[in-house]
Design brief:
By secondary structure, the protein is of the alpha+beta class. It is built from 8 helices and 17 strands. 28% of the residues lie in helices and 23% in strands. It has an 8-stranded mixed β-sheet, with helices on both faces. Strands 12-11-13-17-15 form a 5-stranded mixed β-sheet, sandwiched between helices. Strands 1-2 form a two-stranded antiparallel ribbon. Bound molecules: manganese (II) ion (MN) (2 copies).
Length: 355
């Protein structure tokens, strides 16, 4: 197996040869992330035997109760990344304030991560993952500050995720396409198994949490209703629906076989304009999706263009097959037409409450 393919380390060395000015620090940082993911993969695979199920008894900055594995995953990332000193700062879903490198001027990069994505799936033994985003630290300061992370996603220099599924995979972009590596448990290395992952521009598959349908904005209602209307509706084809409730697993499915994912802005909780976090969920997944030829959007504009205003900011997120995402953006741009806005909930609508 090893003779036929490349390891993640070999891949990174080859990529680096294309950029003679690049330092080894970038590779060392990505490999430290990979090490954290390998370690977490082992922990997750032990399931209940690791004694890691259940709540940790703390509430994180998002107001969500932390699972024991959330805390362990965060500690694992910090531990693996602090040793090399290549990160000037680290922002995590599980920490209100970013970790700041105390050595002035040490580390050229900023890392933002969700150490364990989909952690509500842990207790039911479904796929979870880790997501990360790499930014360059601003040159004008020697010590990182929280505001340094507030860079649009288009400025990311690398992004990726690990998925802890039946197999553990690391999916990575350094800005030149998307590459998938599978962890070979025999030798403990990530091997390149999915070179140049791409997303077909069209699809017949969509993913959305339909229990929120009454809070959706009209363009999303219209889009979903047209999909549900199937072959006899305006789209003229039948669609399948999927929902895993783990961003990483949804992104991985779409990178593997296409589709569109929506967690749109809605009216459920006015304090949360969207559910997913911009800096360590939407931006890294958005970069991967765009690098694979798909499209990543807030629903109305490219997510990678958004200027962040706070480290833990939430945002509406729609991504996947290019033509579907463009259609959703078009529906947001069109002026609302009353007949089109509400058929979902009309007498003949698909979500009629007494049907
Ligand atoms: Mn998450
Ligand atoms: Mn998480």
């Amino acid at each position: 197996m090893l003779t036929k393919t490349r390891t993640l380390t070999q891949f990174l060395i080859e990529e680096r040869r294309r950029f003679p000015e690049a330092s080894g620090a970038f590779n060392s940082l990505v490999l430290a992330v990979a090490l954290a993911c390998k370690s977490l993969s082992k922990r997750v695979a032990h399931g209940a035997l690791a004694g890691m199920y259940g709540a940790a008894g703390e509430v994180n900055v998002q107001g969500e109760s932390q699972q024991k594995l959330d805390v362990l995953a965060n500690d694992t990332f910090l531990h693996c990344l602090q040793w090399g000193g290549d990160a000037r700062g680290m922002l995590s879903e599980e920490m209100e304030q970013p970790w700041i490198n105390e050595v002035d001027g040490q580390g050229d990069y900023l890392l933002a991560f969700d150490p364990l994505d989909g952690s509500s799936n842990i207790d039911v033994n479904l796929s979870v993952g880790s997501v990360f985003s790499l930014l360059r630290a601003p040159e004008e300061r020697k010590r990182a500050e929280a505001r340094d992370f507030l860079q649009p996603g288009a400025r990311q220099i690398a992004a990726g995720y690990a998925i802890y599924g039946p197999a553990t995979m690391l999916v990575l972009t350094v800005g030149r396409g998307v590459y998938g590596f599978t962890l070979d448990p025999e030798i403990g290395e990530f091997l390149l198994t999915h070179p140049r992952m791409t997303i077909a521009p069209q699809t017949k598959e969509f993913a959305i949490n339909a229990s929120n349908s009454r809070f959706w904005e009209p363009p999303i209602k219209r889009y979903v209703e047209e999909c549900l209307a199937g072959i006899h509706g305006p789209r003229g084809k039948d669609f399948n629906m999927r929902w895993i409730a783990s961003l990483v697993a949804e992104a991985h499915r779409i990178l593997t076989r296409g589709g569109v994912f929506m967690y749109p802005r809605d009216t459920k909780d006015p304090s949360k304009p969207g559910r997913l976090r911009l800096l360590y969920e939407a931006n890294p997944i958005g970069m991967l999706i765009e690098q694979a030829g798909g499209r990543a959007s807030t629903g109305s504009e490219p997510v990678l263009k958004v200027q962040p205003d706070s480290p833990h900011q939430r945002i509406g997120f729609v991504f996947g097959s290019r033509e579907e995402v463009e259609r959703i953006e078009r529906y947001h741009a069109e002026p609302p037409t009353p007949e089109l806005d509400t058929p979902l909930f009309n007498l003949r609508g698909l979500f009629r409450s007494n049907s």
